[in-house]
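The pair is quoted verbatim underneath.

:::
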Amino acid sequence: MSVSCKHQQDTGIRLENLDTTAVAQNDFYQYACGGWMALHPLTAEYSRFGSFDKLAEDNREQINGLIGEIAQTAHTAGTVEQKIADLYSLAMDTARRNQEGIAPVMPVLMEIEALQSRSELSAALGRSMHYGMFAVYVDADEMNSAMNMLKTYQSGYALGEKEYYFDTDENTTMIRNEYLRHLARMFTLFGYDNAEERAQTVLRLETRLAGAAKNNVELRDPQANYNKMTIAELQQLVPEIDWNAFLIAMNIHTNTISVGQISHLQEAGKMLAEEPLEDLKTLFVWQTIDGAASSLTDEIYAQNFSFYGKILSGQEEPQPLWKRAVSVVNGTLGEAVGQMYVQRYFPPEAKARMEQLVKNLQTSLSQRIAALTWMSDETKAKAQEKLAAFYVKVGYPDKWRDYTALTIDAADSYYTNLQRAAKFEQDYMLSFVDQPVDRDKWYMTPQTVNAYYNPATNEICFPAGILQYPFFDMNADDAFNYGAIGVVIGHEMTHGFDDQGSQYDKDGNLNNWWTADDRQNFEARTKVMAEYFNNIEVAPGVHANGYFTLGENIADHGGLQVSYQAFKNATKDAPLAVRDGFTPEQRFFLAYANVWAGNIRPEEILQRTKSDPHSLGRWRVNGALPHIGAWYEAWNVTDESPLYVAPEDRVSIW
């Protein structure tokens, strides 16, 4: 069934986005996106700016307008409107923050200084939201997906990726040296003596934690990261921590937990027993300072930005204050803002058309599964069951979050209010421990420019924020919408069948539904993709990590294949015409490429190659399309093209 309307729609292709001086067959990304890149040069506040960011900017301006309307009038205390208005005003009031200095965070720092013995550390770690050596969270039990459970996750090192502590290339070495300088400057700004010595202590302890952590490829193994046990068994596993004291301090009442990364948690326990107490306190002070840096004085904010923004990402200037304020309100009262956003900006007809698109994509994926030659009928039947069980969410939740328990008080400091909001979020998360999974809960706000697949609930979600140009256009024809949002839909569906998602069954449980031969065939085919991306040089001497980005690359590949077939299904009875000089098939691929248009700084390329499971935008086009047979046909790509991949070497999965 086509989702086209009866009147002729435009193509959605904006010719100014093209670079017709480039040869499409030789560099499709430059051809399709070069004009957009020239029209949207990087401004000082961005390390990367692409189609996603442009749409997020548009959304942010709309949300700023909504918040501005609220902020202009007085509201009854305790209402959502009062909370939004006061939090926004607090975020904008830098003069007050400069006057308060570091006073708002001093009570936390004094608590750390007051720690006198190791016996206090377990409860202190549970009590604090400001520092720690590992994280706890609540999510579905992968072996019993209808129920939530408590879990742990490796953390405690501010650079985030373990490679930053161990790689010896010139760029990573420079970052470590700059990090040491940043640490010392921050300790000085907070009035601590021996700042350089403290900086060395922090780097040493973080390096020890990072050394025991799994890398990003190892973290992609859900089986290895599932280690369910009783609290008594956890006490034996990591005896250096008093787990009862820790859980009581967090107000958690449970008898079971899943330890995500055992070696890291054991190392954290050993550190608590072995490292000098004063050194551990120095680490906790740093973590508190690091977490507070964006909500205190301009001077502290500037130093924080100079490292995380300039050095790590290549940003030249921070975002304007109003954008940061909107982001904080969005992050704190996201669904309350989202409710206003969809009422103003998301028409019901967009939701209806999107829901039809999703159904058409499901039909296409079902057809493709049925036609697979490398999979047995037995496994195909299980795959079809999983596809049919997808839980689809479009636009916004059916029930909205209640913010009654959150207090935003303008009499308190900005930092204090943000800590209260963090506690509110923690309490909300922990309220689900050992409770049934709420399948109607959303993991993104409606105004978010993104989408997701959640394997534990077998759900795909498309928030209202992404359902706009260049992803979705009510006035554009099927070639455009299937090429853009259609591939996004197919991408999220394919996540259910990528190297991770394929390990979960239709109910969201980690459960092998494959025959041994089919699994072996699947892994052989995914290896082709991983090795292909491993060979892509993203910067001089720096290659992509094909195994880290494997899941997203599989999803891009599947999304293209599934959406293209759905597009052909939708238009078979009423083929689209050549328009703007392009066939409908060519427009499909132009629409896809424009989704990934963007500019990026060299520093950000290096950072994302370490930290982002998605391939860089250029390679989501020039790396993905050479494995799509229909692209070769649409654009007459021959073996003379530098992008050409021989048919026998192309990826073929879903």
Summary: Residues 376 and 518 are 7 Å apart (CA to CA). Confidence is low (pLDDT under 50) at residues 1-7. The two ends are 22 Å apart (CA to CA).
